[in-house]
Amino acid sequence: MQLDVAIANEGDVAILLSRVTRLLGNAGLNPVDVCGIVTVCAELAHNIVRYGKYGALQVRVEEDRRGRRIVVEARDHGPGIADVAAALRDHFSTGDSLGLGLPGVRRLMDTLEIQSGSGCGTLVIATRNLGRPRWPSQHFPAADDGGFQSRRQP
Fold first, then answer.
1. Looking at 8-129, which runs of residues are DSSP E strands?
2. Which of 9, 40, 59, 102 has its CA 20 to 30 A from that of 127?
3. What is the CATH T-level fold of the domain 2-132, as seen in this structure?
4. What is the spatial distance between Cα 119 and Cα 117, in angstroms, rounded to a whole number?
5. Domain boundaries, the chain
6. C-alpha torsion sign, points 6, 73, 139, 21
7. Alpha-carbon distance 58 to 72, whole Å?
8. Backbone dihedral region of 91: left (phi > 0), alpha (psi from -120 to 50 degrees) or beta?
């Protein structure tokens, strides 16, 4: 099963999320897995609109002797990510965001590969293996490293 959607604006993102939800439901994924993958797709598609000008997102359900997995590929034609390592750190942002998008994608997926460079666009490939326990402890910050913070607005 495969889905390909061109992304150029927020309307395309909405269409993508609806189609991904339907694809994953038809593939028999549980609602928690569907929610996680849709979140990943939303983040990557919004990044295409915000930073990459235009591009495409592909979602595949693959199965072989090793099991089932979801592969999400996002490709854009924007300026690229100058410092991929920095972009994967919590709270790093070149825009006006919280800087949690790509680090969040990394936490929700089992593998994340980013190919990018200044002026050459970006390719993100994220894979989630199905049927294995989720949320290993290494995906969450330790209590002594600052953990998650919440800020209340007056």
1. 55-64, 67-76, 111-116, 122-129
2. 9
3. Heat Shock Protein 90 (3.30.565)
4. 6
5. 2-132
6. positive
7. 6
8. left
Q: pLDDT, tens digit, for every residue of 92-149?
A: 555 555 445 788 888 889 998 988 877 788 999 999 998 765 554 444 444 444 443 3
| Amino acid identity, position 130 | L
pTM of the model: 0.78
User: How crowded is residue 61: how many other Cβ atoms within 10 Å of its Cβ?
Assistant: 19
Q: Nearest-CA neighbor of 94 among 108, 78, 83?
A: 83
51, 109, 143 from 125: Cα distances, Å = 17, 10, 30
Indicate the residue type of 133. P
Phi and psi at residue 21, to the nearest 5°: -60, -45
DSSP SS3 for 35: helix
Structural tokens at position 85: 């390592």
